[in-house]
Amino acid sequence: MTVRETIRRETAKLTASERKIANAVLADYPFGALQTIQELAEKTGVSAPSITRFVSKIGFAGYQEFQRQLIGELREGSRSPLDLKATEKLGDGDFVADYARRAAALLSDMAGAVSQQQFDRIVELLSDPGRAVFLLGGRISDSIARLLSQHLRQIRPRIHHLPPAQEDWPDQVLSMRKQDVVILFDFRRYQPDLARLAERISLMRHPSIVLITDKWLSPIARHADHVVALPIENDTAWDTAICAVAFIEAVIVKVSQADWPATRGRIETWDTLRLSPPTMKSGDDNDA
Question: Does residue 207 sit within a domain?
């Protein structure tokens, strides 16, 4: 369990002062607690002894152990398949059946990691036709972003998938408005260019930023309004995207249902244009 998960689990037991500390840590997680105890005390207006009691209450022997855990989480976020290979756990039996069982367990974990309230809020944002939606992912995760964007385009207008070339981003960023939504996918071995993009659009354009990431949290979380932290570990050298795909499929279903008559009409028109392309009249091939 990450420090973030631990804090949220223990929230009900915290005093008012301790909740101030918890909110400060979570608001800039994990970097908010990687400062000295005196700096955190000054930032929150809570005494250093109160911070010590807080970390003790959530299960740490002291502030140094608390910070070591956070630093360990940062290291986890940079682990590559070469690192994960050393801890790989593969059975000797039917690998496909075993993999399916692992996938089912992860999907069950995902159901507990994403609250209904958080899911509903994201669906509400994406269902609002007054909001343009911009999407982008990392080197691997952009394929998941593209899957979502392709489906959303059939459901509603004003869906924009940012191009891979950074030099082409300003054109899209300049069209973002405060009421729009930006969905970014970034899993461990996080991409610095996505974090810089999130920072700039947060400061300059102020859209709602939705981050789809893992439990160690992409640095984009510092600029995001909504953070969806999904399970990705399956005890192999390769992190899995199964929860990310399942999550966006659930989003697609609910967004399409938000205004089904409009969705149905758009898909019908879409299919007419796709399946019945204009036919050339005799002599059209000679037109210049």
Answer: yes
